[in-house]
Amino acid sequence: MPEAELTQSLRRMAAVRIVPGGDELARRVRICRGEGGKFLGLMFRSQLARDEGAVLIYTRPSRTMTSIHMFFVPFPLGVFWLDSQGTVVDRVRALPWRPYYASSVPACYVLELHPATLDLLQIGYRVEFNETNPRP
Questions:
Q1: What is the 8-class DSSP label of residue 75?
Q2: Is 8 exposed, middle or buried (0-12, 13-18, 19+ CB in 10 A)?
C-alpha cells in the first residue's frame, strides 16, 4: 500500500500545523520513513527544542507497527497518533525510558513533539505538513 498523500511530497524536514488555520506546532520535524529512522526516532538526543520533532510514517494503519518505546530518550514527549488524513486518533505524554506506548486505535503516523504541544493538539484535531528547509 502506498504512503498516504498527507506526506508523499515531503523529503527530510517539515513544519506541522493544526488545520484549518491553526497554530504551527513545530517547524523542524524530521521525516522518518525507513525502518532505521523510525526505530531511532528522537533517541540519543540530550534535549528537544519546542519547534523540533519527528514524524514516523507507515504505509497502512496499525496499532502494533506504530507503537513506540522511550529507551535512550531522556526527556518527555508529546506523542500523537494520526490517521491517513492527519486526524489525531490518540495521544499521550510519553515519559523517558518507558518500554511501550501504543495507540488505542490503528494509525498511519506517529508524531513526536515537545510535550507542551499536548496543550494545543487534541484527539479529533487535524494537522498538515509542509516542506521546510532542514537548516534553522
A1: S
A2: exposed
Q: What is the spatial distance between Cα 114 and Cα 116, in angstroms, rounded to a whole number? A: 5
Give domain 13-131's CATH number out of 2.60.120.1140, 3.40.50.1360, 2.70.70.10, 3.40.1190.10: 2.60.120.1140
Give start and end residues of each alpha helix (H) in the chain. Answer: 35-40
Cell (9 digits) for 3: 504512503
Is residue 91 within 8 A of residue 115, CB to CB? The reply is: no
Note whether 120 and 91 are within 8 A (CB).
no
Record the pTM. 0.90
pLDDT tens column, 33-91: 877 667 666 767 888 899 999 999 999 999 999 999 999 989 999 999 999 999 999 99
